Amino acid sequence: MKSETIGNAVFETWTAEELAAAFDRNEVVIIDVRTPQEYMFEHIEGALLMPLAFFAASKLPGQSDKRIVFHCGSGVRSERVCRAAIEAGITPIAHLEGGFGAWKAAKLPYVGTNMATGAPQRVA
């Protein structure tokens, strides 16, 4: 994990493997900031959806029990959201380096769409 100090805040960048391990241990909440359409097509199972277009840092849960880690498609939108969260006083905060693309490249499981039926399916 890489970390950057911004004022008094800590901004972390996690690899897909680090995030998957922490998620399996129930130590983090993953928040997907992609569009609802992107999320419906494929997403990390168990990730919550808070699209960038509707992001409100004041609506985020506290981090007393679990850390918040944002992700998007490539890491660009989730970095923007993290910086907005830091401006709102939420720290530490983290995002997935490389986004969902990195998650898939690491061959980690997710929920996709069966193109023949349109139904959701687990992809390993």
TrEMBL record:
InterPro entries cross-referenced by the UniProt entry: Rhodanese-like_dom (IPR001763), Rhodanese-like_dom_sf (IPR036873)
Domain Rhodanese: 24-112
SUPFAM superfamilies xref list: Rhodanese/Cell cycle control phosphatase
Listed SMART domains: RHOD
Pfam families the record matches: Rhodanese
Protein name per Swiss-Prot or TrEMBL: Rhodanese-like domain-containing protein
Organism: Seohaeicola saemankumensis
